[in-house]
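Q: My labmate handed me this sequence with no annotations at all. I'd like to see what the chain might look like in three dimensions before we decide whether it's worth expressing. Could you predict it?
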Amino acid sequence: MLGKLNETQIEALLKRQVTGRIACTDAGVPYIVPVNYVYDGKQVIGHSTMGKKMEIMRKNPRVCFQVDEIKTIFNWQSVIAWGRFEEITDITEKEQAMMAITHRLMPFAEKAAHHPSHGLAEKEEDIGTKLDLILYKIVLVNKTGRFERS
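A: Here is what I predict for the chain of 150 residues:
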């Protein structure tokens, strides 16, 4: 059976997952990339270093965000949301965002040496010294969800 997720189910899936995909476009050319995130009920919060994704989102802040939960090919849920990228520049908001990311992601760490910026730098101490950390949010303006259950 195929169906649409209701608002409560959409919110639950966004809050339950920690990895999603950001789709952005540059001069009409789409680019999609997986990201770790935390969802606070209004916005997706993430972090990155400078690269293609950040360059594109700074030029064109209109993005799409997708997250799914796949148990089997016939048992899955998926949410697609549209929103606006905003770089977090306020120091207090940056600290709160990084704390939220850390608290959300670290329960999934398999080793003590793992850190919440593992996809950005091999060593945690490289963040802020060799690499500048960019915190951002995607303010969601529209969400839809689908599911399949056998």
